[in-house]
Amino acid sequence: MATTSNTNAQPATTGDIIGLIILWLIASVCAVILYLTPVGLAALCAQQSGFIMWILYMLWAAILGPIYLIYYLIYRVFMKNSC
Fold this sequence. Notes:
The protein is mainly α. The protein has helices at residues 14-45, 51-63, 65-78. The chain has a domain at 27-78.
C-alpha cells in the first residue's frame, strides 16, 4: 500500500491567522455570555434564599449554564412560575 503526501499544502497566511483569531474571539464571547447569563438569572431568583443557597444556585447555574437556561425557559417563562 503506497502512501501519498499532500505536496500542495501551503502555509497559513496572515489573513487566515487573523480570521481564526477573530473566530476564536467571537466564540469566546458567546461562551462567556452563555455561562454568565444563567448565573445572573439564578442570582435574581435566589435573592430570597439564604446566602449558602444563593451561592449553591449560582454555582449550579455556572456549571450547567445551557441546561439551566433551558430549565429557566421552560419552568419560569413557559409555565409562568415566578422566582
